[in-house]
Task: inverse folding
């Protein structure tokens, strides 16, 4: 009996009886192992903590490369939590009349409160020396601030409690303490606390650079006129955008013909610019498999994975030669050329690893759901279908299993997993789904 293992989608599967195809889990592990050294890519970027520069920039969504300590206390001084009067709590008892001192606005320097006086204070303003409580304006008599000109008095309807409505210096974080540790993903709140600390720039992890190559003589770019036998290239767009959504940078995206010499020349001049080379097409056993022809002699292995769609896969560390004749190595991940095969391969094998390397949550949100209709699947392969929830919350399939049905993929919100060893599921059967909307 074939050995049982736990797949990366959480459903028990079996290794194929013929022993020739990799399981999905085995290929996932192989991709992760190949790209693991990229986690230690060494260099970092320095990004300014500048709202104008960050607005609309991809630098917003970055990961800290080093710990950041706060240079100041948060808040940097005792300040008022609300509009009211700064008072000495031992004096502020109902019925006592206070002389109104000068107003204290946010941004005014710290002053001193004289005994027997109460100072009108605004939210965020520095609490004066001598005061230890704020009485809200609603608890004062009168319950509105007097004009700044002239002499005025105020009394309070309730006693003041020491520390009431005062934000103590350092109550959020003391200066010198850890503000954000290395590995923190920088979102709005994190950039905000960096700005509030007066930090001018931070060191962040350098983004991975990926070279995206879509191969095939039949491919043409959007807007080009198609001749007989030609199609528009979808894989350049899907792979480049997928890579970007994982936090990486596209070093270059290129549609390449089935000319091995031309591809080799391109790699010689551009291969060093990237940390990873991602290709689509040219990985099977046909007569014009340019990716296989160029990368297999360079050290990349090509094999079949027990998955539909996306069976043919290439993976390995390629030894290439640049224009100066100097050898260098780059990891290569090679997917099939049919657009759905490429997208499913990206989701199953590369997307989780790229996101993990950039500090993002690697997994798609998954859930167990129930089929609205029966399906059939090749028992020797892990099938990935496309689908969406119907009005009753059941999974309806969108399109068939074929690898060219890109429109069906584009109108789906779920990937539906049918594990290896299962050839038929009835309506109502449970399936694992990944949310892709």
Result:
């Amino acid at each position: 009996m074939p050995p049982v293992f736990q797949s990366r989608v959480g459903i028990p599967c079996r290794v194929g009886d013929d022993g020739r195809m990799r399981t999905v889990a085995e290929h996932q592990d192989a991709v992760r192992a190949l790209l693991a050294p990229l986690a230690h890519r060494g260099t970092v970027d320095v990004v300014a903590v500048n709202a104008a520069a960050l607005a609309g920039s991809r630098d917003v969504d970055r990961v800290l490369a080093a710990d950041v300590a706060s240079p100041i206390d948060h808040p940097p001084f005792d300040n008022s939590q609300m509009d009211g009067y700064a008072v000495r709590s031992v004096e502020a008892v109902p019925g006592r009349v206070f002389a109104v001192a000068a107003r204290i606005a946010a941004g005014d320097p710290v002053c001193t409160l004289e005994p027997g006086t109460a100072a009108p204070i605004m939210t965020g303003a520095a609490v004066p020396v001598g005061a230890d409580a704020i009485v809200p304006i609603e608890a004062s008599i009168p319950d509105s601030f007097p004009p700044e000109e002239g002499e005025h008095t105020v009394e309070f309807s309730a006693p003041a409690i020491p520390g009431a409505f005062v934000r103590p210096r350092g109550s959020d974080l003391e200066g010198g303490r850890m503000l954000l540790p290395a590995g923190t993903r920088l979102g709005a709140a994190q950039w905000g606390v960096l700005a509030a600390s007066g930090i001018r720039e931070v060191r962040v992890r350098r983004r991975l650079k990926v070279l995206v190559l879509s191969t095939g003589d039949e491919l043409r770019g959007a807007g080009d006129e198609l001749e007989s036998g030609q199609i528009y290239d979808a894989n350049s767009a899907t792979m480049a955008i997928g890579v970007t959504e994982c936090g990486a940078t596209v070093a270059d995206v290129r549609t390449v013909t089935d000319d091995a010499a031309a591809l080799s020349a391109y790699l010689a001049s551009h291969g060093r610019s990237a940390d990873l080379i991602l290709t689509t097409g040219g990985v099977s056993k046909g007569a014009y498999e340019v990716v296989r022809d160029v990368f297999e002699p360079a050290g990349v292995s090509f094999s079949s994975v027990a998955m539909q769609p996306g069976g043919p896969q290439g993976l390995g560390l390629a030894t290439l030669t640049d224009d100066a004749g100097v050898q260098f190595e780059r990891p290569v991940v090679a997917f099939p050329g049919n657009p759905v095969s490429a997208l499913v391969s990206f989701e199953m094998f590369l997307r989780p690893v790229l996101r993990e390397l950039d500090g993002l949550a690697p997994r798609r949100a998954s859930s167990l759901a129930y089929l609205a209709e029966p399906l059939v699947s090749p028992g020797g392969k892990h099938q990935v279908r496309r689908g969406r929830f119907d009005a009753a919350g059941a999974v309806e399939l969108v399109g068939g299993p074929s690898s060219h049905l890109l429109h069906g993929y584009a109108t789906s919100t779920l990937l539906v997993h049918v594990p290896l060893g299962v050839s038929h599921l009835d309506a109502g059967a449970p399936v694992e789904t990944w949310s892709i909307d």
